[in-house]
Amino acid sequence: MLDRFQQKAIRKTIAKRVAAKQEQSAFATIQNVLIVVDQENMAAQEAFSGIHDKLGIAKQAVHVLEFVGKLAKNQEPAANQILKKDFGMHGNIKRTPKPEVLALNYDLVIGYYHTSNVYLDRVLAEFNTAFIVGAQGVDSQLADLLIASTPEDHHVFIAELCKYLQVLQLTLQAK
Fold first, then answer.
1. Is 149 within the bounds of a domain?
2. How far apart, in whole angstroms, are the C-alpha atoms of residue 53 and residue 78?
3. Residue 174 counted as domain residue
4. Is residue 175 part of a domain?
5. Percent of the chain at pLDDT above 70?
6. Quick one: residue 79, left, alpha or beta (phi over 0 = left, psi -120 to 50 = alpha)?
7. Could you give the maximum distance between any two Cα atoms of the chain, in Å?
8. Torsion angle defined by CA atoms of residues 49, 111, 116 and 41, in that order, rounded to the nearest 10 degrees
């Protein structure tokens, strides 16, 4: 029952953030990237580990934030993990894995999850970034671009992402 109230509050927070999101000027190059994934997409995390080469940015400029529903009883969350219990009753994020991860201004945020997840949508709503790209599970209100792919086809998703970034003239840094 409390879970429903929490999810309703998160949806309200997302709606407020979408309404308040201001148009930002287009950027010439992509310098900072955040990838938000679900724990179920572990193979995708490995595929995204080489995205910095395709985007022509430093490896340190790519951050991955992983959503974990529940951890084992005595297990501590990793530095790049955010848990279901990290969200308050009113949709706010109580604990951040690395405070600097949520504080950075990202040029590109990638939401790579294929099933609807209000918690991951809330994380995406946190950013007033220049460009948000999502897979099928991302709320269409949040994403500037949705790319249809299956969870197993993360290489196709990355290739399509690079192609669309070039088409939209969100230029990649010279290699």
1. yes
2. 25
3. no
4. no
5. 83
6. alpha
7. 52
8. 0
Distance of alpha carbon 77 from alpha carbon 175, whole angstroms: 35
Q: What is the number of domains present in the chain?
A: 1
User: What size, in residues, is the chain?
Assistant: 175
Range of the domain at 32: 2-167
| Strands 145-146, 62-68: pairing kind | unpaired
Q: Give the span between the Cα atoms of 162 and 103, in whole angstroms.
A: 25
Q: Which long-range contacts (CB under 8 A, 24 or more apart) does 140-149 make?
A: 141/14, 141/15, 141/18, 142/14, 142/18, 142/111, 143/111
CA distances from 26 to 1, 82, 171 (A): 43, 29, 10
| Residue 55, pLDDT score | 81
C-beta separation of 162 from 54 below 8 A: yes
DSSP secondary structure code for residue 131 in this structure: E
CATH assignment at residue 6: 3.40.50
Each residue of 99-123: pLDDT tens digit?
Answer: 677 777 888 899 888 888 888 888 8
Check whether 162 has a pLDDT greater than 80.
yes
Q: How far apart are the first and last CA of the chain?
A: 52
Q: Please state the rounded mean pLDDT for residues 44-66.
A: 83
Q: Which two tokens stand for residue 136?
A: 């099928």
